Amino acid sequence: MERSSERLLTPGEVATLFRVDPKTVTRWAAAGRISSIRTPGGHRRFRESEVHALLRGEGYRPQEVTQGPNGLAS
Question: What's the rounded Cα separation, in Å, for the pair 43 and 29?
Fold first, then answer.
């Protein structure tokens, strides 16, 4: 099933949600903890739904995951 309309997050956005360094998110992807998509330029992107599922699994409540006025996680 095609999920092309799903929002993709950068490592920095994911890191903000988990309060970790972006390099930690990259290591999680390399270790298979979270899957990523590679852009044509080789950058990693993460499916928003998978990130939110992982957040819930780590004990974060969905209302703690919000977007600021600029569309970035706050």
Answer: 12
d(CA 70, CA 73): 9
At 18-56, the pLDDT tens digits run 999 999 999 999 999 999 999 999 999 999 999 999 988
> What is d(CA 69, CA 58) in angstroms, rounded to the nearest whole number?
26
* Three-class DSSP labels, 26-56: HHHHHHCCCCCEECCCCCEEEEHHHHHHHHH
Both tokens of 29, joined, read: 């992807």
What's the rounded Cα separation, in Å, for the pair 3 and 63?
A: 24
Cα angle 32, 62, 36 (rounded to 5 degrees) comes to: 25
Residue 51, token pair as written in the block:
């990130």
Domain spanning 8-56: which CATH class is it, in words? mainly alpha
